[in-house]
Amino acid sequence: MDLFDNLPLASEDLRTAIAPGAVLLRGLGRADDAQMLAAAESVIAQLPLRHLQTPGGHTMSIQTTRCGSMGWVSEPGGYRYAPRNPGTRQPWPDIPPCLHDFAVRAAAQAGYPDFVPDSCLINQYLPGNKLGLHQDRDERDLRAPVVSLSLGLPATFLFGGLQRTGQTQRYRLAHGDVVVWGGPARLAFHGVLPVADGHHPLVGRRRINLTFRKVG
């Protein structure tokens, strides 16, 4: 039996097109939230969260870890993907099957039936943490979408156009919400406003965001 046989399809009232090629699927991740959180925590146990530095020397407020055959790396020379952890020279942890399968299903519901992720970035936001406007452009295969799952505290998600200075839309992302963007929106600038304090009954005083990508 497929792991997601009991996962309902996103109904039209829970599905919002936020731009050409970009879809918000509200609550899609709630059905198996405990299992997916445990899977993310298993990755964190193997490769603990840490604050990365940008190439410009700025320390990110969020904490990050990653899994999959390719892991995202921030270095003084820039951003890139690598098949091994530069610090340990070891391969990254595997993407847990339940997370991999969920990303495939979410992408299909958003209109991307051929998506198979090979990288997952796990970001932890504590109250006050934010993420500035940026593009996801380090992947070789820009034909594949980005799938982003939110767990825990709500956050205000900014989604703009292809220019950093362009107008952005604001969306409140709650526990279990998924955003998928690709096609004309694949290089859209996006970010997260400072997360408000609070407590989620499953995740606690934090927001866990998992973004799935196909690097190449």
Written account of the structure:
35% of the residues are buried. The protein has 216 residues and is of the alpha+beta class. The model is unreliable at 1-11 (pLDDT under 50). The chain is 12% helix and 31% strand. A hairpin with a 2-residue loop joins strand 4 and strand 5 (78-82). The protein has one domain (14-213): Sandwich (Jelly Rolls), CATH 2.60.120. It is globular and about 45 Å long. The strands form 3 sheets. It has a 7-stranded antiparallel sheet with strand order 1-2-11-8-13-6-3, covered by helices on one side. A 4-stranded antiparallel sheet has the order 7-12-9-10, with no helix packed on it.
Highlighted features:
216 residues; alpha+beta; Jelly Rolls; 7-stranded antiparallel β-sheet; 4-stranded antiparallel β-sheet; 2 helices; globular; disordered N terminus
List the helices and strands and how they pair.
Blueprint: E1 15-19, E2 22-25, H1 33-46, E3 63-68, E4 71-75, E5 78-82, H2 97-109, E6 119-125, E7 131-134, E8 146-152, E9 155-159, E10 169-173, E11 178-181, E12 190-192, E13 207-213
Mean pLDDT: 93
Measure the end-to-end span.
30 Å
Give, in order, the helices and strands. EEHEEEHEEEEEEEE
**For the largest beta sheet, what order do the strands appear in spatially?**
1-2-11-8-13-6-3
Count of β-strands:
13
Strand content: 25-35%
Strand-pairing-aware structural class: alpha+beta
The Cα radius of gyration reads: 16 Å
CATH superfamily: Alpha-ketoglutarate-dependent dioxygenase AlkB-like
